[in-house]
Amino acid sequence: MRKSGSVSMLDVAKAAGVSAQTVSRVANGSGEVRPETRRKVEQAMNALGYRPNYAARALKHGRFRNVGVVLFDMTEFGNAHVLNGVVDAARDRGYATTIRTFDAGRPPTLQEAYDQMKQLPVDGVVFVLEQAVLDFDTFAPTQDLPVVLISEEPANHCPTIDSDQYGGSIALVDYLLAKGHGTVYHIAGPSSSIAAQSRLRGWRDALRQQGIAVPSTYIGDWSADSGYQAGLALAHEHDCTAVYAANDQMAYGAMVGLREAGKSVPEDVSVVGVDDSLGGVVPRLELTTMRIKFNELGRAVFAMVVSQCHGQDVPVGVKTVIPPVLVERSSVR
């Protein structure tokens, strides 16, 4: 087998029995190749150890066909599914994805992460801002490397997209109040989470809009254990007939805690969550939840950044919103 650096497109074309133009189309992610031909070319590439010359590709086409994604935590449920959506959309368009995380050892800034991405072969950058960054209002990307933010707060310097965390929260509270509950208690996520804070504001505002006094807030850390502890405590709130937890894990933990403390769900206390993250994890799933379309969000943000890469204008100063969907099960009476 030859060394990869000595293998040319002509070598691959000869081995696959196709033209060099067809090999070029496969290497550049073109959709104008039949699936069986693509497989044959890819098998020849692998057998010969051929690797596309990305620098040459960028010189010829002006693009690397690669999008960068910067986020805080790849393992968090929402981030993982957003990332999956980006990667799927990138694959469908013949793009690669380069992933980096914010440096946990220092206060996060968009500018530092952006400067790091500029050193890599990427055409555009997606920032997933589930936590606050120091320079959100002052960061200004350059025209040669487009940026899209996944952020609850719209930015005045680049396009922004997110799920409607605030609106979904209001909808959940209104849903529970319409079922006849006098008030709704809330198990909030950690204060470092922008989504948690938006859901907390939505809960408070929804109650105030109905003229209902806001009860005590219980703070969790997204884990089922923190929801369980909150559920044990909420069982002793005399007017607690409805609980809205900021994610499904805490909601599930709260259900266990309430039941252990002698309350029936949903006969005594109704419980709802957010994310719809427990499917395939919890058998006989009964939790009513607000489903966040994370995969759709990932695909949409990829489309926005690639549109900019191709010179198309994407509005700034406004946020594109992906609405959530209420999924009713049996945890609400």
Describe this structure as you would to a colleague:
- This protein is of the alpha/beta class and 333 residues long.
- It folds into 3 domains: 4-52, 434 Repressor (Amino-terminal Domain) (Orthogonal Bundle), CATH 1.10.260.40; 66-163 and 294-321, 3-Layer(aba) Sandwich (Rossmann fold), CATH 3.40.50.2300; 165-292, Rossmann fold (3-Layer(aba) Sandwich), CATH 3.40.50.2300.
- The protein has helices at residues 9-16, 20-27, 35-48, 54-61, 77-92, 110-118, 165-178, 194-209, 224-234, 248-260, 294-309, and strands at 66-71, 96-101, 124-128, 147-150, 160-163, 185-188, 217-219, 242-245, 270-275, 288-291, 319-322, 325-327.
- The strands form 2 sheets. A 6-stranded parallel β-sheet has the order 2-1-3-4-5-11, sandwiched between helices. It has a 6-stranded mixed β-sheet with strand order 7-6-8-9-10-12, sandwiched between helices.
- Helix 1 packs across helix 2 (20-27) and helix 1 (9-16) packs across helix 3.
How far apart are the termini? 68 Å
Radius of gyration of CA atoms, rounded to a whole number: 24 Å
Topology-level CATH name of the largest domain: Rossmann fold
Query: Largest beta sheet: what is the strand line-up?
Result: 2-1-3-4-5-11
